[in-house]
Amino acid sequence: MTSAPHRFALIQRVLHWLMAVCILAMLFIGVGMVSTVAPKYLPLILVHKTIGVILLVLVLIRLALRLYYGAPPLPADLSRPMKLGARLSHQLLYALMIVMPLLGLGMLWAAAYPVVLYGGIRIPPLLPQSDLMHTLLWNAHVYLGFAFFALVLLHLAAGLFHALIRRDGVFASMSLLPLRDRVTQTK
């Protein structure tokens, strides 16, 4: 019988931090896109669509890796409400990482816009043109984008809480840095 890992597999950690950088960039690019009509609007859309599709692929890979490798257990002394909050917030993060790109693609398809990514890669439409559907998907993409931003900030705050205040190994379990020697505490 093997014990549970005390940190995520290296590939899980690399994908986490790669996606974190991309998601933060996407959120800021998205806000920039809806607040500008400047000449940089079209290049921003191209980058936003391309990174969005890449993130969709990466999150599906992350889910498969999570099923394969699992995750380290949360600290035993963490309260039940905090464990529940961690579980629910991670489920919401994964859901939004999947839903946001799909909403974005659906919104473009419903508006009959071609989905062309960086390098000229085209994604054929999977939805018919519909003004009503476009409006619904656009609103969902925008408002869930704000919710996603808030959830990312909450996730960042929780990570810093574990790293700087609790110092319980939760942050270290996802860190790319090598682990320092551990001192076992006894009660």
Describe this structure in words.
The protein is an all-alpha fold and about 190 residues long. It has helices at about 10-35, 40-70, 80-110, 130-165; strands spanning about 115, 120-125. It has a single domain (about 10-165), classed as Fumarate Reductase Cytochrome B subunit, CATH 1.20.950. The protein has four helices and two strands. The protein has a two-stranded antiparallel ribbon with strand order 1-2. The radius of gyration is 19 Å and the shape is elongated. The two termini are about 25 Å apart.
Termini Cα gap? 25 Å
Q: Sum up the overall morphology in one term.
A: elongated
Unreliable spans:
183-187
Q: How many domains?
A: 1
Mean pLDDT figure: 92
Number of strands: 2
- Portion of residues in beta strands equals under 5%
State the CATH class.
Mainly Alpha
Which CATH architecture would you pick? Up-down Bundle
Assembly annotation = single chain
Q: Count of helices? A: 4
Biggest β-sheet: strands ordered side by side in the sheet = 1-2
